[in-house]
């Protein structure tokens, strides 16, 4: 039996995922939570095989939560689940230690398949994403850039794109301001821009906001 914990701040989404997974006789939902605080509290009491983690779960962003889980609960496998751009975030979350990434726009059947695959220690991304990662489409040139970015750089860019200042980014990611400035300079270099306005335009092209 595969034990699953669902972490998403939307009750309807949690209920929907539960209903789909409960249709499989070899999957058991052992807990569901709505915040990262609830997630880490639950993990002290239950031992899921797989955590389905929403990217924008409140309190700590999904990638930071994922890193914390890898440190504190290294045996738990995480499947990221998000409405955010699959092309950008799938690779970032997998680099940060996720076993898979599932877009909220994916077919419902994928959820059961993804949980089973991840529980076995295998990676999961949709066939469509795998094809897009393998072949750059001429009409989506800006998306090529995301492959150059580390998961931390994607986090910094996303926060900058949402209007946060360096100090707020530093506080949100538990970094110092100087480090954020270094990341910003590195992002400009990698995305081939020389000012913040163009950097945010690239963020928009990457569908970070």
TrEMBL record:
<keyword id="KW-0597">Phosphoprotein</keyword>
<feature type="domain" description="Response regulatory">
    <location>
        <begin position="3"/>
        <end position="119"/>
    </location>
</feature>
<dbReference type="Pfam" id="PF00072">
    <property type="entry name" value="Response_reg"/>
</dbReference>
<protein>
    <submittedName>
        <fullName>DNA-binding response regulator</fullName>
    </submittedName>
</protein>
<keyword id="KW-0238">DNA-binding</keyword>
<dbReference type="InterPro" id="IPR039420">
    <property type="entry name" value="WalR-like"/>
</dbReference>
<dbReference type="InterPro" id="IPR001789">
    <property type="entry name" value="Sig_transdc_resp-reg_receiver"/>
</dbReference>
<feature type="domain" description="HTH luxR-type">
    <location>
        <begin position="142"/>
        <end position="207"/>
    </location>
</feature>
<dbReference type="GO" id="GO:0000160">
    <property type="term" value="P:phosphorelay signal transduction system"/>
</dbReference>
<dbReference type="GO" id="GO:0003677">
    <property type="term" value="F:DNA binding"/>
</dbReference>
<dbReference type="InterPro" id="IPR011006">
    <property type="entry name" value="CheY-like_superfamily"/>
</dbReference>
<dbReference type="Pfam" id="PF00196">
    <property type="entry name" value="GerE"/>
</dbReference>
<dbReference type="InterPro" id="IPR058245">
    <property type="entry name" value="NreC/VraR/RcsB-like_REC"/>
</dbReference>
<dbReference type="GO" id="GO:0006355">
    <property type="term" value="P:regulation of DNA-templated transcription"/>
</dbReference>
<dbReference type="InterPro" id="IPR000792">
    <property type="entry name" value="Tscrpt_reg_LuxR_C"/>
</dbReference>
<dbReference type="InterPro" id="IPR016032">
    <property type="entry name" value="Sig_transdc_resp-reg_C-effctor"/>
</dbReference>
């Amino acid at each position: 039996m595969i034990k699953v914990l669902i972490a998403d701040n939307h009750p309807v989404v949690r209920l929907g995922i539960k209903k789909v997974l409960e249709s499989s006789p070899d999957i058991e939902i052992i807990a569901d939570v709505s915040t990262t605080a609830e997630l880490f509290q639950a993990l002290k009491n239950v031992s899921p095989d797989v955590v389905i983690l929403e990217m924008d779960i409140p309190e700590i962003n999904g990638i930071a939560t994922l890193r914390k889980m890898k440190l504190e609960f290294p045996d738990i496998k995480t499947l990221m689940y998000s409405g955010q751009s699959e092309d950008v975030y799938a690779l970032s979350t997998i680099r940060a230690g996720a076993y898979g990434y599932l877009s909220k726009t994916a077919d419902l059947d994928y959820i059961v398949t993804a949980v089973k695959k991840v529980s076995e220690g295998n990676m999961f991304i949709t066939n469509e994403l795998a094809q897009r990662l393998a072949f750059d489409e001429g009409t989506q040139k800006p998306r090529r850039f995301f492959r150059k970015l580390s998961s931390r750089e994607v986090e910094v860019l996303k926060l900058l794109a949402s209007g946060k200042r360096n100090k707020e980014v530093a506080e949100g990611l538990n970094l110092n301001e100087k480090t954020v400035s270094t990341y910003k300079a590195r992002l400009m270099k990698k995305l081939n821009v020389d000012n913040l306005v163009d950097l945010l335009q690239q963020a928009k092209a990457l569908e970070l906001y």
